[in-house]
C-alpha cells in the first residue's frame, strides 16, 4: 500500500495581515450525508509560525499507526510521515511551483448577512456562497488569521483529499483575511451535503513533537500534478 494513498496533503501560504496570525492547535471534523464518506477522519492541526503538522485521527490510529502531514514555508516542502512500531517512513515533496492557477475559475455569488454566532469563543459572521452546482453556508471570524481557502485549493489541485473537497467549491473564494470556522455545503442536484467544522481551537497551545522526524527514512518526490514517482531516497 502506498503511503500517498493514506495521507492528506496540505499547504500554508504564510501570508500576514493586520489580524493575529493563528499559532496554536485545533481539530477539523467532517460530517456528510453520503454513505461513502460518513467515516471521514478528523484532522488535528498544530500551527507554529507558518509551519504546520496535521495528524490524521482515523481507525488506523487505534491500531498504533500514526500518520502526519507537515509543511515548512521556509523551503516550500511538505512531508507525509507514517509510523508503526519501529517502522518510520516519510515522503517529502518539493512544492514551490506545484500550485498555480490550474483550477478552473468558478463564478461565485457571495453574500454576507447580519447573522452572528460565537464559535469556540470567537465572534463569527455568516457568509453564503452560491455557484452553479453548490450552495455553501460559512461562519467566519475576523479575530484571527488562517487562510483555509488557499489550503483547500492546493488540496484540490493535488487530488489527494478528494473525499473531503470534491463536493463543493466554496474554497475557490479568494479570501485571505480571517478564519473560516464552519462550512456546510449542499449540492443542488442531489441535495447531498457535508459540513466541516473547527473545534478544540487553542491559540498558543502547540505540541512540538508533532514536527519531529527523528529516525524517519525520507524519500523525495519531484514536483508535478500527481506528485510523481520516488526518485531519490536519503
Concise overview:
The protein is mostly beta strands and 234 residues long.
Helix amount: under 10%
**End-to-end distance:** 20 Å
Structural Rg = 18 Å
| Strand order in space, largest sheet | 7-8-9-10-11-1-2-3-4-5-6-12-13
Largest sheet: 13 strands, mixed
CATH architecture: Clam
Q: In terms of per-residue confidence, which ranges show pLDDT below 50 for 5 or more consecutive residues? A: 1-18, 225-234
Beta-strand percent range = 35-45%
Mean pLDDT across all amino acids: 78
State the secondary-structure class: mainly beta
Helix-strand topology string: EEEHEEEEEEHHEEEE
Number of strands: 13
Could you explain how this protein is built, in words?
- This protein has 234 residues and is mainly beta.
- It has one domain: Clam (outer membrane lipoprotein receptor (LolB), chain A), CATH 2.50.20.
- It has three helices and 13 strands; from the N terminus they run E-E-E-H-E-E-E-E-E-E-H-H-E-E-E-E.
- The chain has helices at 59-62, 148-158, 162-165; strands at 24-32, 43-48, 51-56, 65-72, 77-84, 87-94, 109-119, 122-130, 134-141, 179-187, 193-203, 217-221, 232-233.
- Strands 7-8-9-10-11-1-2-3-4-5-6-12-13 form a 13-stranded mixed beta sheet.
- Residues 1-18 and 225-234 have low confidence and may be disordered.
What labels would you give this structure?
mainly beta, 234 residues, disordered C terminus, outer membrane lipoprotein receptor (LolB), chain A, 13-stranded mixed β-sheet, 3 helices
Amino acid at each position: 500500500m502506498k503511503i500517498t494513498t493514506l495521507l492528506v496533503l496540505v499547504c500554508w501560504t504564510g501570508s500576514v495581515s493586520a489580524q493575529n496570525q493563528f499559532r496554536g492547535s485545533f481539530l477539523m471534523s467532517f460530517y456528510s450525508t453520503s454513505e461513502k464518506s460518513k467515516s471521514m477522519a478528523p484532522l488535528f492541526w498544530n500551527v507554529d509560525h507558518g509551519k504546520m503538522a496535521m495528524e490524521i485521527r482515523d481507525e488506523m490510529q487505534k491500531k498504533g499507526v500514526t500518520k502526519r502531514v507537515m509543511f515548512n514555508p521556509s523551503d516550500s516542502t511538505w512531508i507525509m510521515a507514517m509510523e508503526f512500531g519501529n517502522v518510520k517512513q516519510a515522503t517529502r515533496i518539493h512544492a514551490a511551483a506545484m500550485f498555480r492557477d490550474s483550477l478552473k475559475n468558478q463564478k461565485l455569488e457571495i453574500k454576507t448577512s447580519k447573522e452572528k454566532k460565537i464559535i469556540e469563543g470567537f465572534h463569527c459572521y455568516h457568509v453564503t456562497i452560491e455557484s452553479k452546482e453548490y450552495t455553501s453556508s460559512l461562519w467566519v471570524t475576523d479575530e484571527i488569521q488562517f487562510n483555509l481557502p488557499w489550503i483547500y485549493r492546493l488540496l484540490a489541485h493535488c487530488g489527494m483529499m478528494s473525499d473531503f473537497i470534491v463536493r463543493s467549491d466554496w474554497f475557490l473564494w479568494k479570501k485571505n483575511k480571517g478564519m473560516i470556522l464552519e462550512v456546510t455545503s449542499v449540492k443542488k442536484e442531489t441535495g447531498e451535503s457535508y459540513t466541516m467544522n473547527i473545534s478544540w481551537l487553542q491559540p498558543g497551545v502547540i505540541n512540538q513533537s508533532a514536527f519531529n522526524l527523528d529516525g524517519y527514512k525520507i524519500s523525495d518526490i519531484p514536483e508535478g500534478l500527481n506528485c510523481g514517482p520516488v526518485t531519490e531516497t536519503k
